[in-house]
Design brief:
The chain is built from 7 helices and 9 strands, in the order E-E-E-E-H-H-H-E-E-H-H-H-H-E-E-E. The strands form 4 sheets. Strands 7-8-9 form a 3-stranded antiparallel sheet. The chain folds into 3 domains: 40 residues, no CATH class; 114 residues, no CATH class; 41 residues, no CATH class. By secondary structure, it is an alpha+beta fold. The C terminus is likely disordered.
Length: 218
């Protein structure tokens, strides 16, 4: 597989070794993740959402039961469905479009799990509102938390580790014209700013709070 923004790059070429020919492909599975020649996360998101739905169908007769408490439903949901749906989410570079897709899929499962709610005023059953579902579980918030935790682990690794060199390394060459894609590092910077962290350089985090500045290095 040739990874390039040019969709026609290497499409007609095959790799030959030891009298064997390997066909060029546009995507394939590696260690459970879907890799594409456009380095797009959309196919991986689709695959994870599909796997999460398949997992829910296996326990769909159990989770909606009224005999289970809310805490048990949430824990079962996290250890079964989300364990599959969020596999490798620490490396995702999400856009608002992917966040909405994940959120819609998650809310659909939560509504089936907890069923309708009786309105205190009209005494009629209604679907749970989005705000109520976010209080129960927010899949986007969980993903961001896992990504920041993974970023902290990588930042504490030494320079001998390849993953750390990839994180702090700067690729050579000129940038293409147009708006660049949102990178994983861009996601981390935005998420850190929302929780009060003002700077991120890969190995140094700077936090400015009411009690002064805090410098945390690896």
């Amino acid at each position: 597989m040739v990874m390039s923004r040019d969709q026609n790059a290497g499409r007609s070429l095959n790799t030959k070794t030891d009298n064997r020919s390997f066909k060029r492909v546009e995507q394939f599975k590696y260690l459970g993740k879907t890799l594409t020649n456009q380095n797009s996360i959309q196919e991986e998101i689709k695959s994870r959402v599909k796997s999460g739905k398949a997992c829910y169908h296996l326990v769909q007769n159990l989770l909606p039961s009224s005999f289970l408490s809310k805490n048990i439903k949430i824990k079962t949901h996290g250890t079964t469905i989300l364990a599959i749906a969020l596999y490798g989410c620490e490396t995702w570079s999400l856009t608002l479009r992917e966040e909405r897709r994940l959120s819609v899929s998650e809310k659909r499962v939560l509504r089936r799990m907890f069923g309708p709610k009786r309105d205190e005023v009209t005494q009629e059953c209604r679907k749970l509102h989005s705000e109520e579902l976010n209080d129960l579980y927010c899949i986007v918030r969980v993903i961001k938390s896992r990504k920041m935790r993974w970023a902290g682990s990588v930042a504490h690794m030494g320079e001998r580790r390849g993953v750390y060199r990839v994180l702090v390394g700067k690729p050579e060459g000129k940038k293409l014209l147009g708006r660049p894609r949102r990178r994983w590092e861009d996601n981390i910077k935005m998420d850190l700013q929302k929780v009060g962290w003002r700077a991120w350089t890969g190995s140094i985090w700077l936090r400015i709070g009411t009690g002064g500045g805090h410098l945390i290095t690896r």
